Structure formats: C-alpha cells, structure tokens
C-alpha cells in the first residue's frame, strides 16, 4: 500500500441534500418508502457519513446509485472489482465487421455496373 496524499471524504449528507433538491424528492414520501420516521430521513442530510446499509436503503428508495457517486470522487488509479463494461467494445466490433461486409458489397456492385 502506497502512501498518498490525504483525501478528504465527501459529506454524504450534502450529497443527499443536493440530490433531493435537484430531483425534488419528497422527504415524507422517502421516509415512508424506507419505513423510517421523516425526522430520521431529515437527520441523514446533516450527517457527514452514513452506514452503508442506510445509504443502500436510500439508493433503493430513490433508485439512484450514491455509491457510484462516491466512487467517482476517488482517483481513477484506485483498483476495483467491478467488471469492465464491454458492451460498447462489442458493438464497435460488430459495426466494424458490418462495415467490411458493406464495403465488399459496394466493390462488387461497382464491378457489376462496369465502373
């Protein structure tokens, strides 16, 4: 483990507060969805950190991945066990193959037309 500069952890409550305001999240409705008291949900906004299970419950209730938001604030050089998304690479490969086929068909068409 290398020694790196001290990273300041984000204020999770501020992250939640900003998300609620931007997305017009009703805290009473959120409290009901989480089966918690409205005052408890309001208190989460003031906390610097939250237990993972509490943040998980909020993610599920509002259908937003706050863990990804937090992870995005870490340096790109940090490792992860998240599998790489290969859907774009697969789609590019598929389109390149299709492009080769179409280029071949175009050449054949040019030959048939006598050009």
Q: Which features would summarize this protein structure in a list?
A:
115 residues, Lambda_DNA-bd_dom_sf, 2 domains, mainly alpha, XRE family transcriptional regulator, elongated, 0% strand, 434 Repressor (Amino-terminal Domain)
Structural commentary:
The chain has 115 residues and is mostly helical. It has two domains: 8-75, 434 Repressor (Amino-terminal Domain), CATH 1.10.260.40; 85-115. The chain contains six helices and no strands. α2 crosses α3. The radius of gyration is 25 Å and the shape is elongated. The protein starts with 11 loop residues before the first helix and ends with a helix.
Number of strands: 0
Number of domains: 2
Helix share, percent = 55-70%
Going by helix content, strand content and strand pairing, the class is mainly alpha
Organism: Aequorivita iocasae
Protein name: XRE family transcriptional regulator
InterPro entries: Lambda_DNA-bd_dom_sf
Task: Please render the helix and strand layout as text.
Blueprint: H1 12-22, H2 27-34, H3 38-44, H4 52-62, H5 66-71, H6 87-112
Helix pairs in contact: 2-3
Write a compact overview of the structure shown.
The protein is 60% helix and 0% strand. It is an all-alpha fold. The N and C termini lie far apart (65 Å).
């Amino acid at each position: 483990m290398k020694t790196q500069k001290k990273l300041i952890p984000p204020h999770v409550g501020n992250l939640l507060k900003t998300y609620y305001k931007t997305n017009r999240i009703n805290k009473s409705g959120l409290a009901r969805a989480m089966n918690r008291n409205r005052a408890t949900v309001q208190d989460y906004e003031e906390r610097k950190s939250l237990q993972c299970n509490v943040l998980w419950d909020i993610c599920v209730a509002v259908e937003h991945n706050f863990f990804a938001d937090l992870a995005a604030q870490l340096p790109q050089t940090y490792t992860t066990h998240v599998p790489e998304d290969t859907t774009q690479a697969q789609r590019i490969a598929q389109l390149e193959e299709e492009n080769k086929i179409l280029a071949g068909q175009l050449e054949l068409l040019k030959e048939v037309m006598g050009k």
